[in-house]
Amino acid sequence: MVYYKHPTAIVESDNIGDGTKIWHFVHVRERAKIGKNCIVGKSVYIDTEVEIGNGVKIQNFVSVYKGVKIEDDVLVGPAVTFTNDLYPRAFSWGEDKIVPTVVKKGASIGANSTIVCGVEIGEHAMIGAGSVVTRDVSPFGLVYGNPGELKGFVCYCGRKLSRIIGEENEKIVYKCECGKVVEIRR
Q1: Of 9, 20, 65, 168, which has the fewest beta carbons less than 10 angstroms from its beta carbon?
Q2: Cα–Cα nearest to 140, from 155, 151, 150, 162
Q3: CA-based nearest residue to 13, from 64, 65, 48
Q4: Would you call the peptide bond into 139 cis, given omega within 30 degrees of 0 as the criterion?
Q5: What is the separation of C-alpha 92 from the centre of its chain, rounded to a whole number of angstroms?
């Protein structure tokens, strides 16, 4: 495999995709999987058995703990933290306490957000900076705050959707100012 690793990075995994760039002071633990053409920013920690898809951008100072799966084309902003234990105690730890988290294709997570384990962030969802995500986020959902609340929906391009062009029992159809049409399931 052909990927870039800065001399200060520690990469213990043999499963790093072609074209990926791993920058200063990153630590990638054994059995972690990182796809092709990813960018892993300065001082990122990627725990053992974490799965990261293709085209993912993880910005500086992010912690991704065991139990997290990040699908393709996800943006993880600076200083985002993922958790993996709903009842953390220094004196009791075990693999059985790990609660999985999934970030679906194309989602974006804003700087300084905390993702509490056990949630699924839907495809192309957007999490606002500084949010604390404590429950699932629907596809194209726009969530921000502490705790994070659904504030609307976004397009593939990231702009907030507001122009409804059709409604049916099961879905609302929006048209974004970029010209794309997005169907949101109710």
Answers
A1: 168
A2: 155
A3: 48
A4: no
A5: 27
Distances (CA, A) of 49 to 82, 180, 181, 183: 14, 36, 37, 34
Residue 80, classified by CB atoms within 10 Å of its CB into exposed (0-12), middle (13-18) or buried (19+), is: buried
pLDDT at 94 over 90: no
What pTM was estimated for this model as a whole? 0.96
Spell out the domain ranges in the chain: 4-154, 156-186
**Would the CA dihedral through 177, 120, 12, 78 be positive or negative?**
positive
Residue 1, pLDDT score: 66
- Given the candidates 3.90.1110.10, 3.40.50.2000, 3.30.930.10, 2.160.10.10, the CATH classification of the domain at 4-154 is 2.160.10.10
HEC secondary structure over 62-119: CEECCCEEECCCCEECCCCEECCECCCECCECCHHHECCEEECCCCEECCCCEECCCC
CB 37 within 8 A of CB 17: yes
| pLDDT more than 70, % of the chain | 99
Rounded Cα distance between 20 and 56, Å, is 9
42: amino acid identity, one letter: K
